[in-house]
Amino acid sequence: MHVRPRLAAAAAAAAAAVLLGAALTGCEDGAAPPRPAVTPSGSPIASSAPPPPTVSAPATQATPVATATAAPAPATRLSMSVTTPGGRLDLVRGGPAREFTVTLRNGNSDAYRHLLLAFQMEALVPKPGDAPGPQASLLLERRDPGTGRWGPAELRVAQDLKPYSLYEGGSPLARDEVRTEHYRLRATPGGPTGSSPLMVRAIDTDAPEGTAEERRRPAASSLPHRTRRAS
């Protein structure tokens, strides 16, 4: 009657010992997983990684842009050309007139208020067989650009040079302006024959007396000429 209670107590003590040993063995084999931290309200605290370091881009310096400076235009001067078909004035006594042109191309340096075209030819020396004629054995004419009509123009026949200070008149010519004048020359029936160039000078009649010739006579040219008897 008293043997069974002792056996039951011994069995219960042995079972408790087995359970305690298992618990101790589990603690030795591995650590329990960490429990998340909680706020006082009971919510878990989210862990945040530290932000990556901010890398600032190196400051860039503006490259200076070279400003192109326009070079000043080179100084240009007045030029003149005298042209005719065939390159020369070939005249026949009492024959038709021969036309020629005078072209003025002004530069960028000077503007002229009074620029005059002056024509001169050396006198022809009479030869044996030349018929005497009037003093004006060569006649020069200019075509009016407005009306197209021909009118007399001055032609000086002499061996010497007329002083520039004695010339007057002329017409304006602006900077970079180009102008072409039309002329014609004919030989009267009587007079000497021979060759002498037709000289053309552009004279600035406003130039002060005593200045250099290039200032008073900024351009000059000539055209070969021959006058012969009619065959």
Give the strand order, joined by hyphens, for the main sheet.
1-3-9-5-6
Radius of gyration equals 58 Å
Instruction: Catalogue the unreliable spans.
Output: 1-11, 16-33, 36-48
Whole-number mean pLDDT:
80
Describe what this molecule looks like in 3D.
With 231 residues, the chain is α+β, with helices and mostly antiparallel strands. It has two helices and 13 strands. The protein has a five-stranded antiparallel sheet, with no helix packed on it. Strands 4, 7, 8, 11 and 12 form a five-stranded mixed sheet that branches. A three-stranded mixed sheet has the order 2-13-10, with no helix packed on it. A hairpin with a 6-residue loop joins strand 5 and strand 6 (150-152). Mean pLDDT is 80; it is low at 1-11, 16-33 and 36-48.
Nutshell version of this structure?
The protein is of the alpha+beta class and 231 residues long. Helix content is 13%, strand content 30%.
